[in-house]
Amino acid sequence: MNEEQPDGWVHRYPLRVQFEDVDQYGIVHHPRYLMYMERARVDLMGAIGMRADDLGGENLGLIVAKAEVRFLRSARFLDELVVTQGCSKAGLSRILLDYVILRGSEQICAAQLTLAFVDGSGRPVRAPLEIRAELQRLGVPAG
Predict the structure, then answer these.
(1) What pLDDT is attached to residue 34?
(2) In 3-state terms, what secondary structure has residue 141?
């Protein structure tokens, strides 16, 4: 897992830590970081003309198949964070997304998520050609 900024294009998603995100000590509860990444991913999909609820195929889904997360520092209530993400590889049916969550220049969390395209029954399928073409246009390496 790359704890540096992802190579290639980078999408940035700013957010402010809300009260609902923290525990009784005012520290962000660890599953919230994955929620931040999900929000950033949906925002990125919109930025490149994709909708999470319409991936170009009937009964086509994009699921998290694997998540590797390193918690490096604690974020706190009202911290201003930026979720950075880049796609490091796009195969026929899987995509690797690299994330770094920052508070200013300080790394809070680093992660790599493997996303898989699946059909309505949850079986892996190939990504639609238009999605693969858009990722290639953005400079994402095939893999």
Answers:
(1) 97
(2) coil
